[in-house]
């Protein structure tokens, strides 16, 4: 509730954060570090939760959902975290929303072969349009 959101890649600033998502180059849930940008990172929902069938490589969004999705849904619904309602909703939200974010963020095509058209209106694409280009010398994320 009283959290402060900091957008940075500065390792010294990241070290002081309680939770770090999508930057920092490490995945360590014990320290609340949820980045998927390491060459060695291969985690999927199935590898972290063997009771789940999805093998798409997780993005940072998927990592956060994997670790906190059930807890958040349970709180919002006033239902037990391991109950059938939360379990069903968790699975449906992953399969029909978060998995697409994971796949797009990791460059996984929705189908084999040459695409017939570009998907430019996905959630990931819309968020990407808000960020500076990777090679832009001015990386100020607050400039619109």
Layout of strands and helices, then pairs:
Layout: H1 11-15, E1 20-21, E2 27-28, E3 33-34, H2 45-48, H3 60-77, H4 84-105, H5 123-128
Parallel strand pairs: 1-3
Antiparallel strand pairs: 2-3
Helix pairs in contact: 3-4
What does this structure look like?
The chain is mainly alpha-helical. The protein contains five helices and three strands, in the order αβββαααα. The longest helix has 22 residues. The radius of gyration is 17 Å and the shape is globular.
Short description:
It is built from 5 helices and 3 strands. It is mostly helical and 144 residues long. The chain has a 3-stranded mixed sheet with strand order 1-3-2.
Question: What value does the Rg take, in angstroms?
Answer: 17 Å
Low-confidence stretches: none
Helical content stands at: 25-40%
The total beta strand count reads: 3
Can you count the helices? Answer: 5
Classify the beta-strand content into a percent band.
under 5%
Going across the major beta sheet, what is the strand order?
Answer: 1-3-2
Largest sheet: 3 strands, mixed
The helix-strand sequence is: HEEEHHHH
Descriptive key words:
38% helix, mainly alpha, 144 residues, single chain, globular, 3 strands, MYG1_exonuclease, MYG1 protein, 5 helices, three-stranded mixed beta sheet
């Amino acid at each position: 509730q009283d959290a402060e959101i900091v957008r940075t890649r500065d390792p010294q600033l990241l070290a002081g954060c309680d939770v770090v998502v999508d930057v920092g180059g490490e995945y360590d849930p014990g320290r609340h570090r949820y980045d998927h940008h390491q060459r060695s990172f291969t985690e999927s929902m199935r590898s972290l939760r063997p009771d789940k069938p999805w093998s798409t490589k997780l993005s940072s969004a998927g990592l956060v959902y994997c670790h906190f999705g059930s807890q958040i849904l349970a709180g919002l619904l006033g239902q037990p975290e391991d109950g059938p309602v939360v379990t069903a909703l968790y699975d449906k939200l992953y399969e029909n929303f978060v998995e697409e974010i994971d796949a797009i963020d990791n460059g996984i095509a929705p189908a084999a072969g040459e695409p017939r058209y570009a998907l430019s209106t996905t959630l990931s694409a819309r968020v990407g349009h808000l960020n500076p280009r990777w090679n832009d010398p001015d990386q100020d994320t607050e400039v619109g």
